[in-house]
Amino acid sequence: MKSRQQADHIREQIEREMLVNNHPAVWLWTIDLQGMKTLPPDWFKLLDDEERLLCQQFRQEKDRLAYVAAHALLRSTLSNTLKIPPASLIISHDKKGKPFINMPESRAVEISLSHTSGMVAVALSETGKVGVDVEAVNQHIIPQDDLSAYGVSNEEAKRLASLAEPERSELFFDLWTAREAVAKADGRGLSLPFSLIQIDHSKNMATIQTDGSCPSSHWHLLLKRPSPLHRLSVAWPKESRELP
Predict the structure, then answer these.
(1) Whole-model pTM?
(2) What is the mean pLDDT of residues 32-36?
(3) Domain 2-240 CATH class label
(4) 10, 12, 150, 188: which has the highest count of C-beta atoms within 10 A?
(5) Is residue 69 a contact partner of residue 77, using CB atoms and an 8 Å limit?
(6) Residue 57: helix, strand or coil by DSSP?
(7) CB–CB of 219/130 below 8 Å?
(8) Do residues 104 and 216 lie in contact, with contact meaning Cβ atoms separated by under 8 Å?
């Protein structure tokens, strides 16, 4: 009962959205941490022993708060979805660092989480892969010349160069979070060259071009502004659910 109350405490503070035409395909939760200085004790209690140990390694309080919030949110949402107490959930990571539910009866649910300064996000899918990324918009970290490390195409670079602030930063972070979300959903993460990911904002779609070792794939995208200072993207396979 106590763990259920802790989960309810978290859920009172989150925004929940059901995606893909009101079908239970992909779910998104966010917590806005802006202005929060200390950790609610109930959040810390939702973590397992390993997560509690890892959170102590963050030197800055804001980073520790974001880590705890993201993992507490993940456990709370999973508990509510799977009807399993948060402390009983076994969450592991594959070789690429992607989290998964290490419980045979629950592996059909795919999970992804992301945290940045002032914001955390969790996405769940019952029908296939999913990836989420949230970033704090900061024009000072955008490279002025070489954008290739972020997978920005020549056409995108020209468009960015034509924009003034704050539009330039907003577009850059839309492109960045979209590619991060697709890479997470694909499962290869940062080992996937971002230059292989093509973004089509007009159709809210992304394509991973084949590199010879993996076939090309197509992904739905949801791009959001969870706060004036943040950009967020969710990616899931096109085959999971066709949009109208």
Answers:
(1) 0.86
(2) 88
(3) alpha beta
(4) 10
(5) no
(6) coil
(7) no
(8) no
